[in-house]
Inverse folding.
């Protein structure tokens, strides 16, 4: 492919794996270059209910967020990510679940076809354009205030992340406790029984008086 350059990438449309969704359900398409704060600002404006204040006197100022009553708030929202954007989409979902409590979750993993069009670097060389099709993993996550079918694969009840975090912390504490036990007094480390723990022996000939430590043999005081 050294004689070609990538001209464009075309993502084939993918059918939403969640049927019977309301027509006003927003879809947040997470791209590789998307900023999480911009994605969350839009998503929270459609799902999070805010309290009326001096800065937000009411919904008549053109805001999409209804203040206090929640009339324009959506009951469901969908996050999608393709290829390298899957991890960022999951991050947005986890942030959303911690900001808006009581959300039910359905997760679907599918493959989306992506076509790459490659053009020759030198068209006069007689080379034709190439189209390469690749199947890229894609994730669809549905978050809903209303109950979802618990028997469907990929269902996650509200508050499940708290249970997972508690289990992870418990396992980490058990690991730290085992490491402390291994790093304590073990075999061969008891006081007085290890090598070099006994009294220092004085070297010299039998019957010869012991010399103070630090004086060389044969030296004069």
């Amino acid at each position: 492919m050294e004689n070609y350059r990538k001209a464009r990438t075309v993502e084939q449309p993918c059918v939403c794996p969640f049927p019977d969704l309301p027509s006003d359900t927003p879809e947040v398409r997470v791209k590789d270059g998307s900023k999480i704060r911009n994605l969350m600002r839009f998503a929270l404006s459609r799902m999070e209910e805010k309290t009326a204040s001096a800065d937000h006197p009411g919904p008549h100022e053109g805001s999409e967020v209804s203040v206090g009553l929640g009339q324009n708030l959506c009951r469901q929202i969908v996050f999608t990510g393709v290829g390298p954007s899957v991890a960022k989409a999951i991050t947005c979902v986890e942030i959303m679940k911690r900001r808006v409590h009581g959300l039910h979750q359905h997760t679907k993993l599918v493959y989306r076809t992506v076509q790459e069009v490659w053009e020759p670097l030198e068209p006069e060389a007689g080379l034709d354009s190439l189209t390469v099709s690749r199947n890229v993993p894609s994730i669809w996550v549905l978050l809903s205030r209303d109950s979802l079918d618990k028997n469907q694969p990929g269902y996650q009840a509200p508050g499940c992340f708290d249970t997972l975090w508690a289990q992870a912390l418990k396992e980490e504490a058990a690991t730290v406790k085992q490491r402390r036990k291994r790093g304590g007094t073990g075999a061969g480390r008891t006081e007085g029984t290890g090598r070099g723990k006994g009294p220092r022996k004085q070297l010299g000939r039998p019957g010869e008086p012991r010399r103070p430590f630090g004086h060389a043999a044969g030296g004069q005081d």
Observations:
- The first helix runs from residue 36 to 47.
